[in-house]
């Protein structure tokens, strides 16, 4: 009321203003709307001889008409009274609203004072919780004691993909997610997989003795072959080169190879390149102390996902034409036991094995006849991936995906149960932080439980294929939890180079079994590159995320030191064996694995900017440039007729330099960015997310070469393949094609240049960089 009286007094005292303003702030919406009210009379007035005071008029010599009328008639007096009452009511309303909103009092336009700022609204641009508080809060949520019950709940003797046991586990996972208050959904696919014959068996006959192994390799060619046995060590390319140097003909041979070093699929693919007829794979006892009669299970698809729907999802309602993945083998493949393999090896004749292979075995000769019969059957299975999401508070449509395989050939305790338990515990812990402790992640976290992982990451790949265009724009990282505990004496990480800084930060902050020692100190202090980092292999579930979808990915695991966990892919992967191998520390190791994965995930969703190391790929590109240039010079010197003189490294050098400059410029933009500018942070994050995606070659078919990443993928389009192609040209290999090399070289060069262009940002930024 006092404010209203003051306003009316000023009006009657003749202060020369025509407007007063008051602020109506809509607190909920966060935007300000200003309402203006005109308080001037219809015409200029002057109060002269009546003693009220002089009005400073625009024309002081003109006699006011209103003053004449007001002093002469009762009618005018009534009008004046009504006007006064109206002004009083308006002033009262102003005062009421101002008092109610607790805003500043109306002021005259000529005596302007700054408006009071509206209340500060949380935008999410500034951290809602200090990072140290986030780390401590998360660490308090995870404990070994909580893993006891979770591991027990998800332990299952039979949960092969598509089985009732697999579906029961899926229901348990999604029920947990719902209990934590997460939004959940289910992703259904109908996939084709190969299983052992329901009636009948696979078999081989050697030296008159028939054997019927119960293990099998899914996606093998089927049928019957006769041939002679040839021992080929681990079936790596280097092993076949040694055999070729001994002038041994591999065409039509049945190769006996050890398990390990590379995947089953790679062994069979290498054998097929040498025109072999079939492959037998056994666990050498010195590598796999699993007993003489333990069967092996796996797959030989040189790819991931359903090989009968390459590049697109396996959905029940689609009508895709029949097509097969180029990664399906055309030769037979079968696993056999250690006893079967060593028995064959002891009976082989022929040359001695190369000294580098060790032992006193022989390679085999034309008298070592064998017959192999594979009768696997192709079946369609309904599988379910299940998901839960914790939504971000700023960029909810940007997310990190954390996933774990749920199925297994047998008990699968280390291969799937531990990873699924870590997934569920991460979901519980972070959900509780959001619900009860005030943690507000900027970006979202998607938790995924995959099915059909044992057949080659089928569930995960089908999801990627189904949502590829959305995922490679919005998913900025994948964290794989498969097989995270396979020992206690070693720690290995395979990841995109973009994630190395995040990984090293987690290594330094997460403790080992000895709480006083970090993972970095124990495993990576002397040589992080050799002791901790390893290549991301094709049989890792993170591989299709990185090489097929262009999503920066990481996979990690505790190991038994130099050896692998021997019970993967067997029926012996049980809780008791893993506990024995880890000295009873499974729950503590699962806790550490959760801390490591959680540290990376929380860092990615908490910080304003994605903590990717943008310059790590520079060294990798420069290394490839060096070796391609060296080999190109060798070919020119030794086979000058194969390559035209106008083929130079100039454009490749230019593309490499452009990427280096663009990566450093983006790193500088990150350093100079305004973290309070939400839109600018989002733009920079999108540029960071595009780095991995732009290394996918746009010039190859997902059917022929699904892993399109030119640095970490697989196929003739990769920079590694270019070096190998030059080696073949230098050696005069009849299969080497100079024109094919020129084409692949040009496409790879432009892929690197396109990645640099994308890194530069807007097209005008690119133009300025080039000048």
TrEMBL record:
Subunit structure as annotated in this protein's UniProt entry: Homodimer; disulfide-linked.
Annotated organism of origin: Sparus aurata
Location(s), subcellular: Cell membrane; Melanosome
One GO molecular-function entry: transferrin receptor activity
Transmembrane segments: 77-98
Gene name of the encoded protein: LOC115573414
InterPro entries per UniProt: PA_dom_sf, PA_domain, Peptidase_M28, Peptidase_M28B, TFR-like_dimer_dom, TFR-like_dimer_dom_sf
Protein name, UniProt field: Transferrin receptor protein 1
Transferrin receptor-like dimerisation domain sequence ranges: 654-759
Domain of life: Eukaryota
Membrane topology field: Single-pass type II membrane protein
Start and end residues of each PA domain: 228-291
């Amino acid at each position: 009321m006092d404010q209203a009286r003051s306003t009316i007094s000023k009006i009657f005292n003749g202060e020369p203003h025509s407007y007063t303003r008051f602020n109506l702030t809509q607190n909920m919406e966060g935007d300000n709307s200003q309402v203006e009210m005109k308080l001037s009379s219809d015409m200029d007035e002057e109060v002269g001889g009546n003693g009220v005071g002089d009005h400073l008029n625009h024309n002081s010599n003109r006699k006011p008409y209103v003053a004449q009328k007001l002093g002469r008639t009762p009618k005018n007096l009534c009008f004046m009274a009504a006007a006064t009452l109206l002004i009083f009511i308006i002033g009262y309303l102003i005062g009421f609203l101002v008092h109610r909103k607790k805003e500043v009092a109306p002021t005259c336009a000529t005596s302007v004072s700054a408006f009071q700022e509206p209340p500060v609204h949380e935008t999410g641009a500034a951290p809602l919780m200090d990072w140290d508080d986030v780390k401590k809060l998360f660490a308090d949520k995870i404990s070994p004691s909580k893993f006891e019950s979770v591991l027990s709940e998800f332990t299952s003797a039979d949960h092969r993909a598509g089985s009732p046991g697999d579906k029961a586990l899926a229901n348990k996972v999604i029920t947990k997610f719902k209990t934590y208050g997460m939004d959940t959904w289910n992703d259904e696919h109908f996939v084709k997989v190969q299983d052992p014959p329901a009636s009948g068996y696979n078999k081989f006959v050697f030296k008159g003795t028939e054997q019927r192994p119960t293990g099998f390799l899914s996606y093998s060619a089927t049928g019957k072959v006769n041939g002679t046995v040839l021992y080929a060590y681990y079936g790596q390319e280097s092993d076949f080169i040694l055999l070729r140097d001994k002038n041994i003909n591999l065409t039509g041979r049945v190769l006996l190879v050890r398990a390990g070093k590379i995947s089953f699929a790679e062994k069979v693919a290498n054998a097929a390149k040498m025109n072999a007829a079939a492959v037998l794979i056994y666990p050498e006892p010195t590598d796999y102390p699993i007993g003489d009669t333990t069967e092996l299970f796996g797959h030989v698809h040189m790819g991931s996902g359903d090989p009968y729907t390459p590049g697109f999802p396996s959905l029940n309602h689609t009508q895709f034409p029949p097509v097969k993945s180029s990664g399906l083998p055309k030769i037979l493949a079968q696993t056999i036991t250690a006893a079967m393999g060593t028995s064959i090896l002891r009976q082989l004749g022929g040359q001695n094995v190369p000294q580098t292979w060790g032992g006193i075995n022989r390679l085999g000769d034309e008298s070592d006849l064998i017959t192999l019969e594979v009768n696997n059957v192709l079946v369609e299975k309904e599988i379910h991936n299940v998901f839960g999401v914790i939504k971000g508070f700023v960029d909810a449509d940007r997310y990190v995906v954390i996933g774990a395989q749920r199925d297994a050939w047998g008990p699968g305790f280390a291969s799937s149960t531990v990873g699924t338990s870590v997934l569920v515990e991460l979901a519980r812990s972070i959900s509780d932080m959001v619900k009860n402790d005030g943690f507000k992640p900027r970006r979202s976290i998607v938790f995924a439980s995959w099915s059909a992982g044992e057949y080659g990451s089928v569930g995960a790949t089908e999801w990627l294929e189904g949502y590829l265009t959305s995922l490679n724009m919005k998913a900025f990282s994948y964290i794989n939890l498969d097989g995270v505990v396979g020992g206690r004496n070693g720690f290995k990480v395979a990841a995109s180079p973009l994630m190395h800084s995040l990984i090293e930060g987690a290594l330094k902050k997460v403790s080992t079994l000895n709480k006083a020692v970090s993972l970095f100190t124990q495993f990576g202090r002397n040589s992080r590159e050799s002791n901790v980092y390893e290549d991301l292999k094709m049989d890792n579930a993170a591989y299709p995320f990185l090489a097929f979808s262009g999503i920066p990915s990481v996979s990690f695991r505790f190991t038994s030191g130099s050896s692998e966990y021997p019970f993967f892919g067997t029926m012996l992967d049980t809780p008791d064996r893993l506990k024995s191998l880890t000295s009873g520390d499974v729950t503590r190791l699962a806790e550490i694995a959760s801390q490591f994965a959680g540290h990376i995930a929380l860092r990615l969703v908490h910080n304003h900017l994605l903590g990717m190391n943008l310059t790590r790929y520079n060294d990798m590109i420069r290394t490839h440039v060096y070796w391609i240039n060296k080999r190109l010079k060798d070919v020119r010197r030794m086979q000058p007729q194969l390559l035209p003189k106008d083929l130079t490294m100039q454009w490749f050098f230019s593309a490499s330099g452009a990427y280096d400059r663009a990566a450093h410029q983006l790193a500088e933009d990150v350093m100079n960015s305004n973290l309070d500018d939400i839109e600018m942070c989002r733009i920079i994050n999108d540029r960071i997310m595009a780095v991995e995606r732009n290394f996918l070659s746009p010039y190859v078919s997902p059917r022929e070469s699904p892993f399109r990443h030119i640095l970490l993928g697989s196929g003739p389009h990769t920079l590694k393949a270019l070096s190998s192609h030059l080696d073949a040209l230098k050696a005069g290999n009849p299969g080497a094609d100079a024109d094919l090399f020129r084409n692949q070289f040009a496409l790879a060069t432009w892929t690197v240049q396109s990645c640099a262009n994308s890194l530069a940002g807007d097209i005008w930024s690119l133009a300025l960089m080039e000048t």
